[in-house]
Specification:
Immunoglobulin-like, 5 helices, mainly alpha, two-stranded antiparallel sheet, binds heme C, 3% strand
Length: 127
């Protein structure tokens, strides 16, 4: 999925990261989710049924990888759904309003609350 959206902009970003001595992906500090609990996030992921579409580390795997991106190593991604930079605030927003960020995306609005989105983000970045 991210490959398809690979653009000159992301190439420039990667080049910048390489120059900064970072191995790619986003730096560790930018994945700290204030007030988020990975443990509660794990529970929320199960409750919202995210694993009906996504393979998520230590929770569940789906057989059909073509349904939705595998979320293993999510903190290494540069972009969320190829649309916005991969940072906690953007991820929390995406989990609550995917249709607003990427109109027509196959990721549905699941009515995720802000608190749950914060916890889920903490979980995804902890993997
Ligand atoms: C009906 C299937 C479906 C469900 C249920 C679903 N998603 Fe998604 N999700 C998708 C699809 C499809 C995409 C890719 C969207 C795009 O690129 O436009 C996506 C994208 C994402 C992304 C960005 C991935 C990337 O590589 O950029 C994250 C993070 C994510 N979903 C998390 C979740 C979480 C957490 C839940 C549960 C609250 C959830 N999803 C529920 C289908 C689903």
């Amino acid at each position: 999925m991210t490959k398809k959206h690979f653009t000159a902009a992301s190439a420039a970003l990667l080049a910048g990261l390489a120059l900064a001595g970072c191995g790619g992906g986003i730096d560790e500090e930018s994945t700290i989710v204030e007030g988020g609990s990975p443990e509660r996030g794990r529970q929320a992921i199960l409750e919202y049924g995210c694993t009906s579409c996504h393979s998520i580390p230590d929770i569940d795997s789906v057989d059909d990888e073509s349904v939705a991106p595998d979320l293993h190593g999510f903190s290494e991604r540069d972009f969320i759904a190829g649309h916005v930079s991969n940072h906690p605030e953007e991820l929390i927003e995406w989990l609550q309003n995917p249709q607003e960020i990427a109109p027509g995306t196959l990721m549905p609005d699941l009515g995720v609350t802000e608190e749950d989105a914060r916890d889920i983000a903490a979980y995804l970045y902890s993997q």
